[in-house]
Amino acid sequence: MANFLKCIKKTENLFLVICLLFGILFTLITPPFMVSDENSHMAKMYNFTEGSINFQKLTLPQTGKTFAVTYLPDSLLHIITEYGPMPFDRNIKANSDDIKSFLKLPLNKNEKSVHFYFVPTYPVFSYMPGVVILFFLKLFNVNPLVMMYILRLSSLLTYMGLTYFAIKITPVKKWLFFIYRIRV
User: Fold this and answer.
1) Residue 48 to residue 76: CA distance in whole angstroms
2) Where is 127: in which H helix or E strand?
3) Are the C-beta atoms of 127 and 45 separated by less than 8 Å?
4) Burial class (CB within 10 angstroms; exposed 0-12, middle 13-18, buried 19+) of 72
5) Domain count, the chain
6) Distances (CA, A) of 123 to 4, 25, 115, 165
7) Range of the domain at 38
8) How far apart are CA 128 and CA 7, in angstroms?
9) Which residue has the higher pLDDT, 177 or 22?
10) What is the rounded distance in angstroms from the CA atom of residue 45 to the CA atom of residue 43?
């Protein structure tokens, strides 16, 4: 216990403990695709694992409007469609039975449908840790919902690592930097 207390006296170590504790808690209790643009980020990463860094253009004949699209497995689209409206309507609630049923959905990489993508401008390099992980998850046909939670955890760990080293190498006012990063 004394070693633990001595260890967390360093600002960067305390940041890791607090961030890991609350990060994992929020990662697990936040329902699927309830984080802003989470479905778009997952679609973008999935597209990268398919070997494409650009989205296809689809023009709807009825309206003449052009959209950026990608093709995602139907099982992933089913989860995204189910939870997509929730962040915008407080009356729709996540159901634990639905989440349990989604855990049984196979990936079925070959059964795909169109997914409209509304934010196609993020750079490729910012997704690299998640893309590498997603590539291997696809190889093993991991359930799409499990993929999403693993990608959330990888984002948390990437954030923690980058912030830990930033606090560690900051020569002055580490506590101000620590407090700002915890607040974000």
Assistant:
1) 16
2) none
3) yes
4) buried
5) 1
6) 40, 29, 19, 23
7) 2-183
8) 31
9) 22
10) 5
> What are the tokens at 143?
């359930």
Cβ atoms within 10 Å of 38's Cβ, excluding its own: 20
Read off the amino acid at residue 30: T
Distance from CA of residue 43 to its chain's centroid?
Answer: 10
11 near 178, Cβ under 8 Å? Answer: yes
| Residue 6's pLDDT band (cuts 50, 70, 90) | low
* 68-111 pLDDT, tens digit each: 888 889 988 888 887 766 666 667 777 788 788 888 888 888 89
Write the single-letter amino acid at 1: M
Are 117 and 69 spatial neighbours (Cβ–Cβ below 8 Å)? yes
Q: What stretch of H or E contains 142?
A: none
Identify the sign of the CA torsion 171, 19, 45, 137.
positive
Q: Round the average pLDDT of the chain to a whole number and report it.
A: 82
State pTM to two decimals: 0.81
> Measured between alpha carbons, how far is 72 from 79 in angstroms, rounded to an integer?
11
